[in-house]
Amino acid sequence: MKIKIYISTIILLLFAGMLNAQVTFETKVSKKKLGVNERLKVDFEMDRDGDNFTAPSFTGFRVVGGPIQSMSHVWNNGQRSFSKTYTYFLQPTAEGTFTIKQAKVEIDGQIYKTLPVTVTVTKAVDKPKDANNPDYVISEGLHLVTEVSKGDPFLNEPVTVSYKLYVKPGIIVNDYRELGKPTFNNFWSQNIQTQMRRAERTTYKGEEYSYVTLKRFVLYPQKTGKQVIEPFSIDLQISVPTNRRDVFGRRYETVHKTISSAQRTVNVKNLPEVGKPEDFSGAVGDFDFKVTTSKNSLNATESLQAKIEVSGEGNLKLFQLPKLKLPSSLEVYEPEFSERVTTRISGMQGRISDSYTVVPQYKGKYPIPSVSFSYFDPSDEKYKTLRSDEIIIDVVEGPVNTATAENTDNQNSTQKQLVTTNGSQFRFLKTDANLSPIQTEDFFKSNLFYALLLGPFLFIPIILLVRRKKRAYDNDIEGSKTRRANRLAKKYLSEAKKKLNDKEAFYEVLERALHNYLRAKFRIETSEFSKEKISQLLTERSVNEETVHDFISLLESCEFARYTPATDVAINKDYEKSVQTISQIDKQLK
């Protein structure tokens, strides 16, 4: 009987232990009904320390904060309680009824899941105008504003867009996070780096504020009509003053808040058709133009450099330079393009040029005709044309070109002549071959015999030399890396090489190849990355600054090609630069 009692007691104790060992993992929400303009706090809480936590997809919500992980250990009367929580802050994206699906976690080798929770999102609710309510204080004292330098620019005229955060005195911004990158459809854009975000005093809507410029961009509109600048959103951690004190005597409450700038519209004007020069190629700004040569006097077969250069302020990267036309007696090579352009708040500044190598073949004086360049000046709202002076190239020594033009009448006149035969113009094949025997010699002890006999011995040193070269080739680790990198670059760019004669297709394929290369190397999706993010990614992997700059400039060339013409020289140059840059990145990656 006592044995039965002991067994029952042991079973009860084991059962109680199993109950105490049961894991609790649940979803807790701050509210089950909220307005579309409110935020939802979601806690995934467990009473054991788990690993490999997987959050559900928050359909109908946008994650604006989190995950924030927290743990707590509490001892009460000798009993220990443990809690681990993953916290998310969600912003509704639409009205309706949505389900927070199951989250998963692994505890002691077992997978545990939460139960789904249903939340109802209603229309926007009126927030109380309470000075102690953080939402009200923030809505009244925190504004993200998109400032546009000009609302009605001409096509290709620069527009500066600044995103400024205005903060009322008393509100403290602890930190902020960008929710995506600003998008500018139908604009060529360039991010202007801000060295230091310093708060400045100003007046906003008649009240005193402090503001800080978060981002600046220079835009060049590429399409006429009403163009939309999309809103920019950030998530902030803010300390808001209240009249309530906490246990430490503090009167500030720290909250998270998502704010967005308003959508802005820019009305882009087309360039006037009246007075547009025939040689106008899309240049907009204020420019200087000149044509120069490295020398004006030289001998035949010597070379000189003829340079066409445009400098000033405007869309320097978005138009094509005029071509240089030279006499046929001068041998001219394809131009080498050069640019020194910086983008500031006011727009692009610098110079671009085409440098032609010219080699005269004959003695004489050769004129380089005047070249014209036209551009549109938006400040004066009219077209302007600049012309270079005629340049005379004096070839002092060399052969004389004896080719002379014949008289026009002689060129156009034709004279018939009789065809005479001398009896030897048409002959039949001879039927009598008149063959005779030839002298032959024995193969043995002949020159060919000794050559074949001694040849293998002569090839032995050559074979040894080739093997030594092959061994050195295989041991050349750096060289092997270079060759492997070159093969990899040509592999990714093989399709682009096939499109060298089709500008649009070439740059489209080239851009895809560059992203595919990064995707393969880093195993991440780069198509949504900005150029700044890609630059940071490469720098973190020990790629030097010059190579990173070359890669980013290739991506920019792919963007420019959508709006501007490109010469065969530029296309071939970008292809060669792509092969070299990918090869360099592959060698430098760590």
TrEMBL record:
It comes from the Bacteria. Residues 1-21 form the signal peptide. The chain crosses the membrane at residues 448-466. Keywords: Membrane, Signal, Transmembrane, Transmembrane helix. The keyword Signal applies. InterPro entries: BatD. Pfam families: BatD. This is Oxygen tolerance protein BatD.
